[in-house]
Design goal:
Blueprint (H helix, E strand, L loop, with lengths): L1 H5 L7 E4 L6 H12 L3 E7 L3 E7 L17 H15 L5 H10 L8 H19 L11 E4 L5
Helix pairs in contact: 3-4
C-alpha cells in the first residue's frame, strides 16, 4: 500500500486501472483517486473480450463487483455481467459459458482482449476530455470478438 500512498496524483483528472484486480493495491489506487476526485476507467481483459467501466469519484464503487474472499475477480465480474444482462433482459450466453469453463481457473489473458480494451480506453478518454457522454458504472462497456451481445 505504500506505493499507492506515494503516487503523485496532483493535476490528474482521469486514470486507467488496467491491473489484474487480484489484490488490495488495485482497489487502494481507486480509493486514492476517489479521494482526489479522479475518474477511473477500469479496463479488464477477458481473453477474447474486453470489459470497461468508468467510475465517478462519488459514484457507485467498482470494487462492489468483487465480494472479498469469494471467486476469482474475472469470475465475479462475469457473474456481474451475466446478472446485469438478465436484469435488462439482454442475456450474454458466452459470458455464462466462460464462467462455467473458467470457474476452476482464471480467464485467459489473451492479447485480443488487451487490444480491444486499449481501443475502448482511448475512445472513452477522448470522450471524457471532450465533455461527451460516457456510461458510468454500474453501466459498462463490453466488447467481445465475433460474439453476439
Amino acid at each position: 500500500m505504500e506505493d499507492v500512498d506515494a503516487c503523485d496524483l496532483s493535476g490528474i483528472r482521469y486514470a486507467v486501472n488496467a491491473t489484474l484486480h487480484d489484490n488490495e493495491a488495485s482497489f487502494a489506487f481507486d480509493e486514492k483517486c476517489k479521494e482526489r476526485g479522479i475518474t477511473v476507467i477500469h479496463a479488464v481483459n477477458l481473453g477474447k473480450a474486453a470489459f470497461l467501466a468508468v467510475e465517478k469519484p462519488k459514484g457507485y464503487p467498482f470494487s462492489e463487483v468483487v465480494k472479498k474472499g469469494t471467486d476469482d475477480f474475472r469470475c465475479s465480474l462475469g457473474k456481474y455481467i451475466s446478472q446485469y444482462g438478465m436484469f435488462w433482459q439482454m442475456p450474454v450466453p458466452w459470458v455464462d459459458e466462460a464462467i462455467r469453463h473458467y470457474s476452476e481457473e482464471s480467464f485467459p489473458q489473451l492479447g485480443i482482449g488487451a487490444y480491444i480494451a486499449a481501443g475502448y480506453c482511448a475512445n472513452i478518454l477522448s470522450n471524457l476530455t471532450e465533455g461527451k457522454e460516457v456510461k458510468y458504472f454500474p453501466k459498462f462497456y463490453l466488447s467481445p470478438l465475433l460474439e453476439e451481445i
